[in-house]
Amino acid sequence: MPLMPIDSHAKSARWRSPRWGALWLAIALVLMWESTARLGQWSSLVLPAPSVVAQAWWQSWSNGFFVAHVGQTLIEVALGWVLGSVFGFAAGVALGESEHWRRILLPYVVASQVTPKLALAPLLLLWMGFGTWPLVVITALVCFFPLLENTLTCMRHVDRQSLDLFRLMHASRWQTLWLLKVPAGLPGIMTGLRVALVLAWVGAIVGEFIGATHGLGALIIAAQGSMDTPLMFAVLINITVLGWLTYQALWALEQHLLRHREPAPKDEFNAINPMS
Questions:
Q1: Domain 48-257 maps to which CATH number in 3.30.950.10, 1.10.3720.10, 2.60.120.560, 3.40.50.2300?
Q2: Whole-structure pTM value
Q3: Residue 234: which residues within 8 A CB-CB, separation 6 or more?
Q4: Tens of pLDDT along 100-109?
Q5: Where are the chain's structural domains?
Q6: 215, 73 contact by CB (below 8 A)
Q7: CB of 186 within 8 A of CB of 255?
Q8: Of 14-18, 74-78, 174-178, 227-231, which gets the smallest average pLDDT?
Q9: What is the mean pLDDT of residues 47-71?
Q10: Rounded distance, CA 63 to CA 161, Å?
């Protein structure tokens, strides 16, 4: 039996890679969706065909209808993610460095996170009025805890031998924190940032359901009110694509920052990209 050339093996393996498998699965699902919609088993009001959704999506981008709404949601996601991550990281470092304050404050932090953030939306709207900032605050509150928890875990699980070495070198507490603990915990902290980014999209969109006139979440509610199902699907496509792109950008940044490190175990910090 003749042997296949090496390049043929490479091409065959490439076509069988998980990325191509995900692409073929997506194509198959879209074709099934299109055929189901065309056969008329469901009303177009309930399940419009992908071709109709694509037309609505393209038309809304062509006439600039999506631009303002996408920009508004991106502002909320970006500001909420940055604020929540900064405060979460700072709180994680502070509680990780002080066992006394950790025992006092951590139960209150956990209790505050059990409260659904959307339950605070009416109060935030009452205190801050309608606009961007109440939604930014909701998004920041959603992003806060993943950074706090991951940072705190990293601060408390530093290699004991490295800590002893820094003590022998008479390193200050500040030097130990920024030269040992934070760099050692960077994989876990970056994982917290990725989780927070996903939650930022959830917080911003759902927050817009409650109190917004602009943004992708508000647009979904408006499309629902006008029974424009293709537009609802088109907005969902925007949310999915933008969320995926921002997640991948952060993943690429993480890989760049950690490029000189040895790969972590697969179960450590959940640091495997499900989208790679």
A1: 1.10.3720.10
A2: 0.84
A3: 53, 56, 57, 60
A4: 888 998 888 8
A5: 48-257
A6: yes
A7: no
A8: 14-18
A9: 93
A10: 61
Residues in Cβ contact with 247 at an 8 Å cutoff, skipping those fewer than 6 apart: 194, 197, 198, 275
Where helices occur in the chain by DSSP H, the ranges are: 6-15, 18-38, 50-62, 65-97, 99-114, 121-128, 132-156, 160-168, 173-176, 182-184, 186-211, 216-225, 229-257
Write out the two tokens for 219: 């647009």
Amino acid at 25: L
Please give the pLDDT value at position 140: 95
Coil/strand/helix, residue 27: helix
The C-alpha angle with vertex 258 and arms to 20 and 249, in degrees rounded to 5, equals 50
pLDDT digits (tens, 9 = 90+) for 12-34: 556 667 777 788 888 898 898 88
> Would the pLDDT of 274 be above 70?
no
